[in-house]
Amino acid sequence: MTESLSHRPRRLRRTPALRALVRETRVTPHDLIAPFFVTHGTNVREPIPSMPGVDRVSVDLLVEDAHTVAALGVPAILLFGIPASKDASGSESYADDGIIQLAIRAVKAALPALTVITDVCLCEYTDHGHCGLLHGETISNDDTLPVLQRIAVSHAECGADVVAPSGMMDGAVGVIRRALDERGFSDVAILSYAVKYASAFYGPFRDAAGGAPKFGDRRTHQMDPANVREALRESILDVHEGADFLMVKPAMAYLDVVARVRDRYPELPLVAYNVSGEYAMLKAAGAAGWIDERSAVLELLHCIKRAGADAIITYHAKDASEWLRDHPLA
Ligand code: PBG
Q1: What pTM did the predictor assign?
Q2: Which residue puts its alpha carbon closest to atom 14 of ligand 1?
Q3: Which residues are catalytic?
Q4: Domains in the chain: how many in total?
């Protein structure tokens, strides 16, 4: 017995083609930013155990991997460096022959059209693992700012297109903007980690980059996961200081924050960072056969965009780009 129902939403879900026609959110490789961990040496590829499929690579192999993602349509890469040695002030972060400086020059020489985004933070470079200079056991916000200026200018000199201060130091965006402009780099953009939470989901990244704090934690500068109004405050400050993009990090458990920031600042591009712990969870469940990795990753990327992100930093960038190319109606 068939009822005469005037509204049957199922009609538009009947076939893959109909579903494609009414799909509200699309993810393409152009939405993705691929992060890389770069280390000294040549022909080095060290797997990161907690991030299967992600390696620490030397500059020569970085260029190859960057070529691979660029050929798939990924428009940008984000570089993190593993320095040769660490010290109290993180001096390799702004050294002319520092790992990131070498990496930027090599990638821009080989792939000038690819956007190179660099991490501007001290935690991978300091022997204490904190994101700034210490006074005793306290991070000095204002003493750290000139170092961040120096790092950003050095990345710009090597050809970085975008610098991304990730350390949640107050005033960082403004001072970096000023330093870049004074040195003639007014075209270098700032991707502000405006809204970065003190998250347990960064665990695998800290193994990958060797940037775990030797004592204490990051809760005096990264945000409390319980807060969202504070995210709007952080965003407005960075907008006023000259951020070209805003970012919310992590992504998966913070989609309400992505949506709130999107609604409040519709005029700026918004990036969400699908972080290392989120990656590790899906990879582990996929490898155990508990979840279908491909479906779960593509679902998650669509959900992050649906929440309001324009672009997604994700360690799934290469695989997802291949899946999106192979299965356009999936
Ligand atoms: C700090 C930085 C971190 C991440 C990106 N930049 C680690 C931290 O704040 O402790 C985490 C990224 C991830 O987990 O994927 N430079």
Answers
A1: 0.96
A2: 202
A3: 196, 249
A4: 1
Q: What is the pLDDT along the chain (330 residues), one digit of tens a residue?
A: 788 899 999 999 999 999 999 999 999 999 999 999 999 999 999 999 999 999 999 999 999 999 999 999 999 999 999 999 999 999 999 999 999 999 999 999 999 999 999 999 999 999 999 899 898 889 998 999 999 999 999 999 999 999 999 999 999 999 999 999 999 999 999 999 999 999 999 999 988 988 788 888 888 889 999 999 999 999 999 999 999 999 999 999 999 999 999 999 999 999 999 999 999 999 999 999 999 999 999 999 999 999 999 999 999 999 999 999 876 555
Q: Please report whether residue 113 resides in a domain.
A: yes
Residue nearest to atom 11 of ligand 1 (CA): 202
In a domain, 17, yes or no: no
**Are the CB atoms for 50 and 39 separated by under 8 Å?**
no
CA of residue 132 to ligand 1 center, whole Å: 14
CATH classification of the domain holding 269 = 3.20.20.70
Atom of ligand 1 nearest to the CA of 203: 14
- Residue positions counted in the chain: 330
276 lines ligand 1 (CB under 6 A): yes
- Residue 4, domain member (yes or no): no
**Structural domain range at position 132:** 25-326
Q: In 50-98, which ranges are continuous DSSP H helix?
A: 59-71
119 lines ligand 1 (CB under 6 A): yes
| Alpha carbon distance 280, 22 (integer Å) | 32
- 138-139 vs 245-249, strand pairing mode: unpaired
